[in-house]
Amino acid sequence: MKKLALLLAALGVMSATAFAEESALKITSIGQEVEIENDSGSSNIGESVFFGTIVNLQYKDWSFGVTGAKRWNMDTEYVDSVTGRLQLDAMKNFGNYSLGARLRSEKDYDRWYLRGAWNHNMLWGAADVWYQTNEGKNDTWKGEIYPIGVQYNGIKLGWFIDVTKTNGGLKSGDLEQSFEHQLRFYAPLYKGEKLSLNTEIRHTLTVDDKFKDEEKSSASRYEDFGRTRVYLKSNYKIDDSWSVYLNYGYEFRNKEYVADGKSDENKNYYGVCTFGWKYNF
């Protein structure tokens, strides 16, 4: 309830300011999104069903975002509430680079982000680094980093690093740290007057992780070159302001158990479907 009250207060203050007659703070867009995730072997409609409302604002060279969301597990016979989400974003643009921060709060964790991105001719990069406090578990440091990428005429290729570091006091079998290196590729497929289609491909190169007392761990890890995800993303412009979109991603996985290196055949395929609408002011 406290997080919901905070969200409503933030939305109210920002909306009131944005619509003030002489205010320079403007709402740039508003939208809603549904995301449904599922793994192979699941009988659920969605192991994770996310519904969020996103408001974006602008003040000079600052951009802000407010997201309020809810997540469920869903089947034909039941709907289980999992968590709610409050997310606040702020980013300042400095021309060829931008810096900012994000707060994401859910029932079982809170995250404090530092964010950045840069772009210079054919080169680009970005990073989200955060500290996460977990309810009943060890806190973690996490990073999703593009050290460098290249781009040309709408096509982008980026080197991506996913890094996790768990704070001390670990139990046997717990993850201590992990580094995953990927190549990520983005490209337009079609652009018409109303409809546009794009693709994104993520391919794991190497996975380097460390568990405390690995022989006692029940976890599994991705094998090197063991994960590939392909997205098809579509956007349809209803008019100059309204647009709707539908994205689908499918992932192939090869995993092995940490303790003995044997193949893990569970949940080796993953699908995610996202759809929503956006109104630009």
Structure, explained:
The protein has 281 residues and is mostly beta strands. The chain has one helix and 15 strands. It has one helix at 2-18; strands at residues 26-39, 46-59, 62-74, 79-93, 97-106, 109-120, 123-134, 140-152, 155-166, 175-191, 195-211, 220-237, 242-257, 263-264, 269-280. It has a 14-stranded antiparallel beta barrel with strand order 1-2-3-4-5-6-7-8-9-10-11-12-13-15. The radius of gyration is 20 Å and the shape is globular. Mean pLDDT is 91; it is low at 16-21.
Number of distinct helices: 1
Mean pLDDT: 91
Low-pLDDT ranges: 16-21
Order of helices and strands: HEEEEEEEEEEEEEEE
Spatial ordering of strands, largest sheet: 1-2-3-4-5-6-7-8-9-10-11-12-13-15
The main pleated sheet reads as: 14 strands, antiparallel, barrel
Gross geometry: globular
Class based on secondary structure composition and strand pairing? mainly beta
Our measurement of the CA-to-CA distance between the termini, rounded to an integer number of angstroms, reads: 31 Å
Give the tally of β-strands: 15
Radius of gyration over C-alpha positions, nearest whole angstrom: 20 Å
Strand content: over 45%
Proportion of helical residues: under 10%
